[in-house]
């Protein structure tokens, strides 16, 4: 087993010449490194952090932000081996077919590949995420006697399932660094450097390829790589920062001839206490409120708009979760009693639950990462985030909640009271998924995207991007399972190119 190398021990001026350099050891970078094990490729994985949190390294992530209230950029991601999976929640679900499609009602939509491109890789991704057997579709067909679901009349919303990552021998979700460190050390064609911060992508003078990566440590060491190919797997914010800051040959930055790098940044808004669900008979299966271990997996049920509903009603995606029991106020109790009486239903055992969830947002070129004038301890420009959230995206979520209410009434099973009307109400207590997406979006047209269908930066033959930076649209589900599937697809592509 070969140890990881501490980049602080690498002599100044060293130049390494691997076949492939992977920048960033989060789930994307680690999955690629493992997928290329035992190939003829000589692979180097460069990770900024160590095996655990270090405040000085984490501080390299801080930046400025304006616009809608958003998380601190140094707090919404983690800069050590395993990346943000060191603090993730483990919620997992694959994307839907519609997520990849060009949709007339969603500007800038349409991926350069479809769900079928990820399908061959999802099973391995599910294993790497340690999210149990693949039950997502099967669970939708479990019988009511086995797994009772909230009764809903015909309509656009249905119960679907999240699965959860769980690290072997731990109660926590899989921390990719801790979980796969020994596996990485066993890979003979891989060398992993910790404390290795890539600070510059050295573009060849013709602009057509990366010929050098500059690496710096916080202890003051500097060395370089001259790899045949490079995969950026440093997370969506840092990928934009590296591309934009590497502006010595191309003044706008690498891959940014068309001013797309850093634009279309997105996260999933998670508004709190969006409404109250009332079930007249008070019966709610426990897997709606908390995770349950069943069928060999950890699952939780949520309420999702169907693909058919999203298409027919030109609707954005969302996921509705049932959070906790709550008490109704006097007006609420009267409304429930009146509604139940009108439906001819006994509401003597009616029980109320708070609703939460998350929603898809429309790609917005002005929601973006740019460079700040301030610099970090390594001399790199810090980032600036302009965060936005549109009223119409929130209105879509509200419409889906109303649809759920309509279906509950149609089934004479319950009703919904909506809490959110105005923007201020949505923004109060608004949280975010910590799902950074979209700064190096994929599109066949270099004017509209940074990478192509193979995740190669347009015009730069040996530079690729892994992670949710490439998402042109975002769906509503948590991204890591799909990030890993996409990383495995990219590993296959690069293996083919370099063999
Ligand atoms: C609080 C929280 C909860 C979350 N919960 C969920 C969830 O339940 N489900 C879900 O699917 N997702 C969740 N996520 C998101 C998930 O963690 C990310 O989608 C995922 O980690 C992204 O993987 P990545 O490999 O692309 O990037 P990252 O995880 O960000 O990894 C990037 C790596 O690159 C390294 N790096 C950065 N810059 C450089 C550089 N210049 N040189 C060298 N190395 C560098 C970093 O140290 C890091 O290790 C959550 C995130 C947070 C913060």
Description:
- The strands form 6 sheets. A 6-stranded parallel beta sheet has the order 1-8-4-3-12-23, covered by helices on one side. A 4-stranded mixed beta sheet has the order 2-11-10-9. A 4-stranded antiparallel beta sheet has the order 6-7-16-15.
- The protein folds into 2 domains: about 290 residues, FAD/NAD(P)-binding domain (3-Layer(bba) Sandwich); about 160 residues, no CATH class.
- With about 500 residues, the protein is α/β, with parallel strands linked by helices.
- It has 11 helices and 23 strands.
- The structure holds flavin-adenine dinucleotide.
- Flavin-adenine dinucleotide (FAD) binds next to helix 1, strand 6, strand 9 and helix 11.
Helix percent reads: 10-25%
SS strand fraction: 15-25%
**Which homologous superfamily in CATH is the superfamily of the largest domain?**
FAD/NAD(P)-binding domain
The biggest beta sheet reads:
6 strands, parallel
Cα Rg? 24 Å
- Averaged pLDDT: 97
| Strand element count | 23
**How far apart, in Å, are the first and last alpha carbons?**
25 Å
Biggest sheet: strand arrangement = 1-8-4-3-12-23
Small molecules bound in the structure, each named once: flavin-adenine dinucleotide
Structural class: alpha/beta
Name given to the CATH architecture of the largest domain = 3-Layer(bba) Sandwich
How do you describe this structure in short?
This protein is α/β, with parallel strands linked by helices. It has helices at residues 27-35, 55-58, 115-128, 136-139, 176-186, 236-245, 307-312, 330-343, 391-410, 423-427, 480-498, and strands spanning 5-6, 15-16, 20-23, 43-46, 64-67, 91-92, 157-164, 190-194, 197-203, 210-216, 222-225, 229-232, 269-270, 275-279, 292-294, 297-305, 318-326, 351-359, 368-375, 381-387, 414-418, 431-432, 463-465.
């Amino acid at each position: 087993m070969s140890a990881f190398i501490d980049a602080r021990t690498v002599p100044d001026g060293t130049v390494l010449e691997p076949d492939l350099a992977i920048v960033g050891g989060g789930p994307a970078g680690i999955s690629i490194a493992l997928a290329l094990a035992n190939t003829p490729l000589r692979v180097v994985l460069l990770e900024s952090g160590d095996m655990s949190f270090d405040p000085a390294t984490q501080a390299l992530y801080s930046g400025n932000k304006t616009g809608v209230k958003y998380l601190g950029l140094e707090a919404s991601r983690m800069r050590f081996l395993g990346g943000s999976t060191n603090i993730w929640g483990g919620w997992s679900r694959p994307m839907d077919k519609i997520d990849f499609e060009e949709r007339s009602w969603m500007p800038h939509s349409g991926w350069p590949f479809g769900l079928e491109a990820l399908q061959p890789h999802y099973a391995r991704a599910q294993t790497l995420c340690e999210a149990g057997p693949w039950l997502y579709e099967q669970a939708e067909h479990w019988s009511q006697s086995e797994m009772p679901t909230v009764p809903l009349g015909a309509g656009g919303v249905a119960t679907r399932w999240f699965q959860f990552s769980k690290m072997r021998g731990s109660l926590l979700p899989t921390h990719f660094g801790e979980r796969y460190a020994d596996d990485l050390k066993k890979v003979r064609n891989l060398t992993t450097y910790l404390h290795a911060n890539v600070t510059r992508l050295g573009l060849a003078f013709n602009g057509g390829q990366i010929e050098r990566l500059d690496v710096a440590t916080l202890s003051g060491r500097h060395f370089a790589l001259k790899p045949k190919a490079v995969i950026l797997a440093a997370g969506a914010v840092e990928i934009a920062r590296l591309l934009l800051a590497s502006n010595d040959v191309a003044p706008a930055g690498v891959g940014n001839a068309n001013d797309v790098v850093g634009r279309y940044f997105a996260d999933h808004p998670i508004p709190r206490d969006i409404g109250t669900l009332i079930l007249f008979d008070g019966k709610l299966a426990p897997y709606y409120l908390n995770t349950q271990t069943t069928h060999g997996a950890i699952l939780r049920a949520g309420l999702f708009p169907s693909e058919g509903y999203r298409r027919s009603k030109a609707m954005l995606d969302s996921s509705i979760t049932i959070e906790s029991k709550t008490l109704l106020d006097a007006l609420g109790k009267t409304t429930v009693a009146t509604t139940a009486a009108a439906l001819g239903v006994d509401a003597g055992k009616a029980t109320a639950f708070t609703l939460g969830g998350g929603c898809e947002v429309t790609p917005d070129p002005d929601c973006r990462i740019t460079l700040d004038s301030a610099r970090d301890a390594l001399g790199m420009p810090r980032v600036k985030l302009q965060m936005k959230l549109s009223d119409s995206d929130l209105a879509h979520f509200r419409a889906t909640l109303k649809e759920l209410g309509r279906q509950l009434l149609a089934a004479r099973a319950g009703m919904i009271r909506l809490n959110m009307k105005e923007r201020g109400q949505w923004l109060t207590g608004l949280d975010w998924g910590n799902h950074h997406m979209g700064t190096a979006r994929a599109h066949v047209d270099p004017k509209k995207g940074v990478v192509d269908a193979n995740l190669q930066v347009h015009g730069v033959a040996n530079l690729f991007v892994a992670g949710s930076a490439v998402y042109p649209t975002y769906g509503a589900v948590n991204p890591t399972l799909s990030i890993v599937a996409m990383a495995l697809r990219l590993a296959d592509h690069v293996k083919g190119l370099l063999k």
